[in-house]
Amino acid sequence: MPLLENGQIIQDTWQIAVEGVSLPAGDVLVPLARLSEGLGRNSDGRLGVVLSSADEVETLRDALPRLDVVALTFPVFRDGRPFTQARALREHLHFKGEIRAGGHVLPDQYEFLLRCGVTAIDLPGSSDPAVWQRAHEAFTVAYQPSILKEQAEGFAFRRRLA
Amino acid sequence: MDRRNSRRDAEGTSVITANRLLDGRIVWLAADGQWTTLIQDAKLYPNSAVEEALKARNARAQEEALVGIYGVQVTETASGPLPVTSRERIRAAGPSVHPDFTPDWHAPHPAPYA
Amino acid sequence: MSHSPSAALPVGHYAYDDVDRTFLKQRVAQFKDQVERRLSGALTEEEFKPLRLMNGLYLQLHAYMLRVAIPYGVLDAKQMRTLAHIARTYDRDYGHFTTRQNIQFNWIRLEDTPEILNVLADTDMHAIQTSGNCIRNVTADQFAGAAADEVLDPRVYAEILRQWSTLHPEFTFLPRKFKIAISGSQQDRVAARFHDIGLISREGENGRPVFEVFVGGGLGRTPIIGVRLRDDLPEEDLIAYLEAVLRVYNAHGRRDNIYKARIKILVQALGTEEFLNQVNAEFAAMDRARYRLPESTVEAIRARFGAPDFAPAGNAAEKLAAQRKADRAFDAWVHTNTHPHKQSGYCSITISCKPAGGIPGDVTSAQMDLLADLAERYSFGELRITHLQNVVLGHVRQDALYDVWQALEKNGLGEANIGFITDIVACPGLDYCALANARSIPIAQKLSSRFANADLQREIGPLRLNISGCINACGHHHAGHIGILGVDKRGEEAFQITLGGSAGDGDASIGQILGSAMSEDETVDAIARIIDTYLSRRTAGERFIETCRRLGTAPFKDAAYATA
Ligand code: HEM
Ligand code: SF4
Q1: What CATH number does residue C294 fall under?
Q2: What is the pLDDT of residues C449-471, one digit of tens each?
Q3: Ligand 1 pocket: which of C135, C430, C474, C477 to mutate (most atoms within 8 A of CB)
Q4: Does A59 reside within a domain?
């Protein structure tokens, strides 16, 4: 599936671990349950982990320096836990790699995701990237600090959105 | 899909209702396949046939700009179908505390969009 | 007599600047786009629903209902006129004030909504987060900035919280809605212990405020009184601490069952101690500097609130005393409908939206315009909506009261019943609400007609009567001294009575169900017998709630179910 990153559609070159099959060479995303298998893999491909919305990001603390991607999953767009997971990855665990969001996500959530530290969207099949871009440009101000380095807009907690 | 409070049983008779997406107003399915705001014009379905009809209508909900299509159990009276529950009677007649707000209420002056 | 506006700033609420106005217009454009995507089929109804709810738009029984935010219950005359305009132009000429200090319009069309939001934005209003699983309109007490016992003006903090929670990136898809209330004095006038978070302020040692923090209170189907998490939260940690509470809730609140999704259930499930541990752990780990609320920010927000420019008291008090002597009906109204003001020569007045036989909280567009006129002439342009569905003029000179009262009298707003049995709180119930079991309004109308006699009401004294049309408890029936709950008996409407609830002032309690449900008329009769029992059994000066507590529910239950 295509990835949306910095306003660009790019091809996703990562492979997803297939259940019951040993991990392939190259860049691979593994579920949390197979993290140690991934870490022990004998390959110079990069490693990422896929979290469900119920997983605790704290469990990644030790592995995180060796991960390039954390992929968060919306089972349904109303399940807002991935927002907290993303923000905690950045704020508590100081993760610097890519955070993806996938599953059932709406363009209307795009700006929130970015402000929580998500950097790439695993676009649902039928998505129109123009709608996502519009969502990103819809607002020029936000009313609270975020983990991004945003400029103050006037007083209080207001932030200017790029 | 049945609704809480619409109290359909195996034997009785039902009518089909929905809300219009654009203005939210209540409508009833008439015999000619059109949707009407007056329950008096609604087509009666034996409960054995209503699920089938609901399925067909739900499949066209987006196209017909409707939301929340479901069946309502009624009894037949001289003045037309009467829902068995208070909830559906209020839906059919309008709020009891504003007797003037009947389903065919029109704004005394035209709204700006008209 | 009129007040010259001392500055361009509105009295009692935050003044928008261009940045805030741009934001509102962008929000309208976003919603317009969402509506178009819904109509084209790009958004399903399931996807669109939470988006429209976050703009206050519900699909109710007969039509869409739009809930407009009135932050901390304060609005100005211009804004009230906008509401009147919306009622006239896009609805059926009336609106309904709610217990969350908002207003609802019952006959809105989806296709008009972007335009309505645009009209609202023109006077700095919106419907953002008046519904949906997000942080809702923050409520504050209705005598803010006027009450004689006030420690700080809670509206400044409510505004800070409003801004912070507006389109919060992390907390817009919570397990369930989240309601915050803040009281500016030790006396709790906001039912802080019945909110997801309740804040009660007092002055700290360094002259800056500190907050008592309650969490996990609520009514609904599981009424729970909130637990105290903090005694003395410093002002500068206010935002950080709320972030911590919400993070724990967003991560761990239940999402599998909407009836168990409120934070109160999480607090109960974990136990207060474990919940507190998790909040403290989060609070300790977070980047506190980022969320610090410096004094300068509080003052910057405060500086955008206009303050009334009071005139010297002169002989206002004497003039009022003479008028009260001369007119007994006016005297009765002053007695029940006014509240002491910190400024000598002034008082606050509560305008009853509960006429005998009327619909509690409903106000016509003409009445809205009148309220706007009165606010402009007599109360620095400021109006407040209370959580008891009435309207407050915060700062009225005592020698203007007679004029105000006469204007209200002429327009059906002069009822002298604040705090009495006919000052009924009622939700819309089955006449409008898609979730209802029974109608709340007709029974409220019957009760307010039954007890309409002014002498009888005064004889009965202070009594809160609250009515909800279903267990969601929008009418706060559990918090009523007498509560009425609509239930469904095989498709027919029926009512349960609760007794002994109370919302505030340090003695919050939850009403006890008296017994099995009755029909509407039986319920009205049963309540009349409960009142008779109170009148015959009370001791001198004892209020209804006190008699309930002393005697317990048994004698009232006997009276309620005694058949003639
Ligand atoms: C007519 C449309 C309305 C709908 C569909 C609606 C729906 C609901 C629902 C489902 C709940 C329970 C939520 C929960 O406990 O998780 C609730 C609670 C509440 N509603 Fe409404 N409501 C409506 C109108 C009102 C009105 C008119 C008021 C004010 C008079 C109001 C004030 C409240 C309050 C204060 C609560 C919170 C009770 C608590 O603390 O749990 N609502 N509403
Ligand atoms: S209490 Fe029930 S009936 Fe009343 S407004 Fe709330 S959801 Fe509707």
Answers
A1: 3.30.413.10
A2: 999 999 999 999 999 999 999 99
A3: C474
A4: yes
What is the DSSP secondary structure assignment for residue C305, as one 8-state letter? B
> Which residue has 């298998």 as its token pair?
A37
Nearest CA in chain B to C432: B95
Q: How confident is the model at residue B7 (pLDDT cuts 50, 70, 90)?
A: low
- Give bridge partners of residue C349 from the DSSP assignment: C338, C393
| Chain segment C158-172, per-residue pLDDT in tens | 999 999 999 999 999
Q: Do C167 and C68 share a structural domain?
A: no
Q: Is C488 on the interface with B (CB under 8 A)?
A: yes
**What's the 3-state SS for A74-107?**
ECCCCCCHHHHHHHHHHHCCCCCCEEEEEECCCH
Six-digit token pair at C181?
A: 């209330």
Do A142 and C167 lie within an 8 Å CB cutoff? yes
Nearest CA to ligand 1 atom 37: C474
pTM: 0.91
Q: How many residues does chain A have?
A: 162
Indicate the residue of A139, A144, A154 with minimum beta-carbon distance to C26.
Answer: A139
Compute the distance between CA of residue C208 and CA of residue C235 in angstroms, rounded to an integer. Answer: 7
Determine the 3-state secondary structure of B55 from DSSP.
Answer: helix
Which three-class secondary structure state does DSSP give residue C178? strand
Of C355, C496, C511, residue with least CA distance to C438: C496
Partners of C493 in the β-ladder: C488
CA of C486, nearest ligand number = 2
The model's pLDDT over C96-126, given as tens digits with 9 standing for 90+, comes to: 998 878 999 999 999 999 999 999 999 999 9
For ligand 2, atom 6, name the residue with the nearest CA: C474
Q: Identify the H or E element spanning C486.
A: strand C482-489
Q: Which domain holds residue C178?
A: 154-302
Contacts of A145 in chain C (CB under 8 A): 290-291
The pLDDT confidence band at residue A137, using thresholds 50, 70 and 90, is very high
Query: Which residue, C280, C302, C324, sits at the end of a domain?
Result: C302
Three-class SS state of C295: helix
Q: Which of C173, C238, C249, C255 is the mutation pick for testing A, counting most A CBs within 10 A? A: C173
C427 C-beta closer than 6 A to ligand 2:
yes
The ipTM value here is 0.96
**What would the mean pLDDT of A117-136 be, rounded to a whole number?**
91
Which residues form the domain of A58? 3-132
Q: Is C543 exposed, middle or buried (0-12, 13-18, 19+ CB in 10 A)?
A: middle
CB B30 within 8 A of CB B36: yes
Nearest to A139 by CA among A154, A159, A161, A116: A161
Distance (Å, whole) CA C33 – CA A131: 10
How many CA atoms within 13 Å lie on the side-chain side of C433?
23
**Domain residue spans of chain B:** 3-93
Overall residue count recorded for chain B in this entry: 114
Query: Is residue A143 assigned to a domain?
Result: no
Model confidence at C5: pLDDT above 50:
no
Report how many domains make up chain C: 3
In chain B, the largest separation of any two C-alpha atoms, in whole Å, equals: 47
Instruction: Please check whether residues C167 and C294 belong to one and the same domain.
Output: yes
Q: How far apart are CA A85 and CA A107, in angstroms?
A: 19
Tokens 């498709």 appear where? C491
Q: Which of C25, C184, C52 is nearest to C111 (CA)?
A: C52
Q: Find out whether the beta carbon of C513 lies less than 6 Å from any atom of ligand 2.
A: no
Last residue of a domain, one of C245, C268, C302: C302
Residue C198, token pair as written in the block? 């309740």
Query: Among C135, C145, C162, which residue's Cα sits nearest to residue C16?
Result: C162
Query: Do C392 and C386 contact (CB within 8 A), yes or no?
Result: yes
